[in-house]
């Protein structure tokens, strides 16, 4: 089975450009650049890896006129297609030891080399090509799926990405084979030696010291062709973009010992389950399909931690090589992933990188380096205030703000739960200064923020406005039945807050009138039941009579129940009415009528036929009845309500209705 570590319903939105890209160094052009790094040595230089086997270096200055060749190993690199000099990582102590590490393809036989080189002691812009120490040499059966990334983690270890060896569909099943290094992310300790190796095995690697013959360098497996992984500088999470086979591209957060499913799964979907052992496979935190809105080959990115583009702060920025589309992804284990399309790049993106200040760049096969910058902004709304409100039986949060722009197309409203991330919930039109949020739950802490947008860009965010929703008087059930020319009203509350009284109102032909009242129970979380009898003997009413309950607080505010109706005359059929609203989120009302006293069971089933909730399981009188189903904890999908009735005369009735929950 697979272990689900994220919500699989993913939120994707389009944000008018708060970011844009520009050519960072107009005077420089590179040959097939595939990687960009900084040395972390305080010099603010940028290093660009060219696929044919060169590393170029230059100062981080927009006006820089030319680059220098830092390393040239074209004599030992086999390049073309997916082969070549593919990755570069500087040792955390590079400033003092001058060590850096590369991942490249060698030939005769075709193999991946993980090698260490040294910078020149006399010229910091030049490395010694004769200083190579080959740490690892891994045979490659095919010319594609070489992986290529190398990077140091906060633990000081070197992490290495290797593809599954190539061809198509992983014909040797290398990714699941723990005696092969292919289809893996490796982790080695380059500061120590464990003969005959030129490195050491970290003792907490998942297979360190195993006796089954598993390769101890393996850190994670079940990967097809990880094209770029990176560490979040603040959280140390390891993010990886894994290129798919023919349908799905995926993003994973890599865990020690994690099996990411290839070739058993492509993304969240079965691919080839032959030879797949029962075990724990980890889902990607995000996937996208092969189509125009997605793409066909992911380029993994980085979590932005720079300062010049505040909108991107904390977001994972990645792209698709083919479609050139760039997105920003936010993720946490509670709320899942929220994916935002940013822009379409001017050229195919081969890799992302950052400078010494964590500002974000990408390199492209057009030979240029592009930098992310903030787009021109419009004035932000201010003085955002969130307040609890109600209308009839509906409770909602009322948002009010000050509109400071005259050129906005509208406003975007975002909300987060306590401990979660902000999610886009709706938009408001231009010149709006208020919004009502009905999609709330009781006893929840919410924080709201908004921003203005137009066709050019967006504003920064407004202030944040927190609010805690209270426990209102929540009507759990409300029924009305006719018995001996009397209408018996019964209702139940699951919670009450500051409840002074209930006023009972009736509607026949001349509007709503108050016909009585009952005292409430103040504030309580206990279940309470109430009953009221409307004696209509001698009224000569013939037709529909409607009832509702007006709950009134001590402060004078009030909330209405749903409306219940009866028909004076004979109810002579058993009938389950369609629920309303439908689709719904998260509450819907189910009405039914029975013509004689019966034992009633109203059950909710999911689309697989599993019982998920029971709304009624008791004896009820003849008449019209109404029940609300509150489903905040149930996932979106199709459900079925089954009403079963067994009357005192031995008659059996069953009826079903389809309910659609959309969140």
Q: What is the C-level CATH assignment of the largest domain?
A: Mainly Beta
Percent range of helical residues: under 10%
Rg calculated over all Cα atoms: 32 Å
CATH superfamily of the largest domain: TolB, C-terminal domain
Secondary structure category: mainly beta
Low-confidence regions: 1-16
CATH topology of the largest domain: Neuraminidase
Total DSSP E strands: 50
Strand content: over 45%
| Main beta sheet strand tally, sense and closure | 10 strands, antiparallel
Q: Helix segment count?
A: 1
The CATH architecture of the largest domain would be 6 Propeller
Q: Rough shape?
A: elongated
The end-to-end distance, rounded to whole angstroms, is 27 Å
Average residue-wise pLDDT: 89
The overall number of domains is: 4
Topology of helices and strands:
Elements: E1 2-3, E2 11-14, E3 19-23, E4 33-37, E5 45-50, E6 54-59, E7 68-72, E8 85-90, H1 94-97, E9 99-106, E10 111-119, E11 127-139, E12 150-152, E13 158-162, E14 184-188, E15 218-221, E16 226-231, E17 238-242, E18 248-254, E19 265-266, E20 269-270, E21 281-282, E22 286-289, E23 298-303, E24 316-320, E25 325-332, E26 336-344, E27 349-354, E28 360-364, E29 369-374, E30 382-391, E31 394-402, E32 410-417, E33 423-429, E34 434-437, E35 445-453, E36 465-468, E37 474-483, E38 486-507, E39 512-524, E40 528-535, E41 544-553, E42 558-560, E43 564-567, E44 575-576, E45 587-594, E46 598-606, E47 611-620, E48 623-630, E49 637-647, E50 652-661
């Amino acid at each position: 089975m697979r272990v689900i570590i994220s919500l699989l319903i993913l939120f994707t939105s389009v944000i008018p450009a708060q970011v844009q890209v520009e050519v960072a160094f107009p005077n420089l052009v590179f040959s097939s650049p595939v990687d960009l790094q900084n040395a972390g040595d305080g010099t603010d230089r940028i290093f660009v890896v060219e696929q044919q086997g060169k590393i170029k270096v230059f100062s981080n200055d927009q006006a820089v006129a030319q680059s220098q060749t830092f390393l040239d190993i074209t004599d030992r690199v086999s390049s073309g297609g997916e082969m070549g000099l593919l990755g570069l990582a500087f040792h955390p102590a590079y400033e003092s030891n001058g060590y850096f590490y590369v991942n490249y393809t060698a030939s005769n036989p075709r193999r991946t080399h993980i090698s260490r080189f040294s910078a020149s002691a006399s010229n910091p812009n030049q490395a010694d090509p004769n200083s190579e120490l080959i740490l690892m040499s891994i045979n490659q059966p095919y010319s594609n799926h070489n992986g290529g990334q190398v990077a140091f983690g906060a633990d000081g270890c070197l992490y290495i990405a290797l593809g599954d060896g190539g061809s198509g569909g992983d014909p040797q099943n290398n990714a699941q084979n723990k005696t092969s290094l292919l289809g893996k992310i490796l982790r080695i300790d380059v500061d120590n030696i464990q003969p005959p190796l030129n490195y050491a095995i970290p003792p907490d690697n998942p297979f360190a010291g195993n006796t089954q013959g598993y390769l101890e360098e393996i850190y994670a497996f079940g990967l097809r062709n990880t094209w770029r992984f990176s560490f979040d500088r603040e959280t140390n999470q390891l993010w990886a973009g894994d290129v798919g086979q023919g349908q799905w591209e995926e993003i994973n957060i890599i865990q020690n010992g994690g099996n990411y499913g290839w070739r058993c799964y492509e993304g969240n979907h079965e691919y080839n389950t032959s030879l797949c052992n029962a075990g724990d496979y980890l889902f990607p935190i995000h996937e996208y399909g092969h189509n125009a809105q997605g793409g066909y080959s992911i380029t993994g990115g980085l979590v932005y931690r720079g300062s010049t583009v505040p909108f991107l702060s904390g977001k994972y920025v990645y792209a698709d090589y083919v479609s050139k589309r760039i997105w920003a992804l936010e993720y946490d284990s509670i709320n899942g992933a929220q994916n935002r399309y940013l822009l379409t790049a001017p050229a195919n993106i081969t890799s992302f990188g950052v400078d010494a200040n964590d500002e974000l760049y990408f390199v492209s096969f057009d030979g240029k380096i592009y930098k992310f910058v903030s787009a021109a902004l419009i004035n932000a709304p201010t003085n955002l205030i969130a307040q609890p409100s109600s209308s009839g039986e509906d409770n909602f949060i009322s948002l009010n703000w000050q509109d400071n722009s005259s050129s906005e197309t509208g406003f975007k409203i975002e909300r987060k739960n306590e401990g979660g991330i902000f999610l886009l919930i709706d938009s408001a039109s231009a010149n709006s200064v208020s919004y009502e949020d009905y999609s709330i739950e009781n006893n929840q802490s919410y924080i709201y923020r908004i921003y203005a947008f137009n066709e050019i860009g967006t504003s920064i965010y407004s202030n944040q406005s927190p609010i805690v929703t209270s426990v209102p008087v929540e009507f759990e059930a409300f029924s009305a039945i006719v018995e001996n020319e009397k209408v018996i009203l019964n209702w139940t509350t699951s919670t009450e807050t500051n409840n002074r009284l209930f006023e009972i109102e009736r509607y026949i032909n001349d509007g709503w009138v108050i016909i009585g009242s009952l005292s409430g129970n103040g504030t309580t979380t206990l279940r309470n039941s109430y009953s009221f009898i409307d004696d209509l003997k001698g009224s000569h009413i013939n037709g529909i009579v409607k009832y509702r309950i007006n709950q009134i607080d001590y402060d004078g505010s009030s909330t209405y129940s749903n409306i219940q109706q009866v028909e004076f005359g004979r109810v002579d059929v058993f009938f389950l009415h369609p629920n309303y609203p439908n689709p719904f989120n998260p509450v819907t009302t189910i009405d039914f009528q029975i013509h004689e006293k019966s034992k009633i069971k109203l059950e909710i089933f999911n689309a697989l036929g599993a019982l998920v909730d029971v709304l009624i399981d008791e004896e009820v009188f003849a008449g019209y009845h109404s029940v609300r189903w509150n489903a905040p904890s149930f996932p979106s999908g199709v459900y079925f309500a089954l009403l079963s009735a067994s009357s005192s005369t031995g008659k059996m009735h069953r009826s079903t209705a389809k309910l659609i929950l959309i969140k």
